[in-house]
Amino acid sequence: MQPTATSVRAVNRLTERWAGSLRGAGGTVVSATSLWPLLAFLQDAAGGPARDELGDATGLPAAEAAGAARGLLEALGAVRGTRNALGLWTRADLPLHADWRARLPAGTVGTITGDPAADRRTLDGWADERTEGLIRSMPVGIDDSTQLVLAAAQSVRTRWLRPFHETEVVPEDGPWQGQLLLGLHRTTSLLDRVAVAETPDGPVTLLKILGSTGVDVHLLLGSVDMPPAQVLSHGIGTLAGAGAGAGAGPVPGDRLPLGEAGPGLRVSTVRRRTPRPVLEVLTVAYRVEADHDLLKVPSLFGLSTATDASHGHFPGISPCPLAVGSAGQGAVAVFDAKGFESATVTAISVMVGGAPPPPRYTVRHVEAVLDRPFGFLTVHRTSRLVLSAGWVTEPLPFPEDHEHDENRGYDEGPRLDEGRGRDEAVRP
Description:
There is one protein chain. By secondary structure, this protein is α+β, with helices and mostly antiparallel strands. The protein has three domains: about 5-160 and about 290-350, 2-Layer Sandwich (Antithrombin, Chain I, domain 2), CATH 3.30.497; about 190-275, no CATH class; about 370-428, no CATH class. It is about 20% helix and about 30% strand. It is built from seven helices and 17 strands. It has helices at about 5-20, 30-45, 50-60, 60-75, 100, 115-130, 230-240; strands at about 80-90, 110, 145-160, 165-170, 180-190, 195-200, 200-210, 215-220, 250, 260, 265, 280-285, 285-295, 320-335, 340-350, 375-380, 385-390. Strands 2-1-3-15-14-13 form a six-stranded mixed sheet, sandwiched between helices. The longest helix is centred in the N-terminal third of the chain and has 16 residues, at about 60-75.
């Protein structure tokens, strides 16, 4: 099973949009594939402006979002070397609409207790297990106001069809000048593994490394002064056939001109004992880790309106008004001589947004105050048999060490303790 062309375009569009927003020269890694299904499931349940903004991020109509997200997760699960999981945790007292819950993959739903420490252990354990230890914590804040957490985990592991040889590398110039680095070297006769894309911002060299599970890694190199966001955006654009000029695509290695053919790329002629051409690759091993607060630029992910806690935005999830409280992604990628592995965990937490809807009906209110001695009966309901009768003259005192418990339901008035003294008091 393969991801549909529609889903691929939508996810890649979000990846390009995210990559194009990156600023600074620090190492990072992002995964829209892990984020996009979460946005799609939220879009399916959203209303008003939040629904429109999420649609702009997912690139799909709301009516198609949940089905596309579920189909994408199923398709990714069939890709060799990958693991994918979706998790939903809600407070036990948060009512969920059954139809929205039913559109999530089976086995998705769990509960959180409202105890931040216990919930953090549960969520961190899920992230750790689903990424086989690469990511050990859920990348969102959890507190006693959290009503719901929606998360996705993804891991990719592949071995190179042809491993690299490890070697020493000491760059002669650039930011790594003079540093002793773990280099990776290999040669091949397949010149189409490298290409140069001409873009409005300058040429970009594209190097493809094939993995054994059908998952490949593309290395991208732009000119020295090209910002990372541009390099990544142009690299993503080539996958969709978005070439520069008159719609031209990247120029493969066997058609590149002699000389400096692209960033980090030189083409020449050599004498060999066989007629096969040579592509020689020298790069460096790397491990990149990143934590992203998705609400630093909420508009990028369609979450601007959804974070407004003055009212609710997801009527399709629950009758309780809900708003996005936090959203984040933790990611790691490792590239070495034998292969590549990466993992991401993306999560969105939801809290109560605004006050509940006002009451719809006017009803009679009766107040009863029993603040002096009173009698009681215990009665079998169906037979109306009186099991016991009594009279209360000495109610128990309020304990000095009593701690208020918000979960005990004090909206019904003081609860009379049972079984603490000879003159037992019971609740009518």
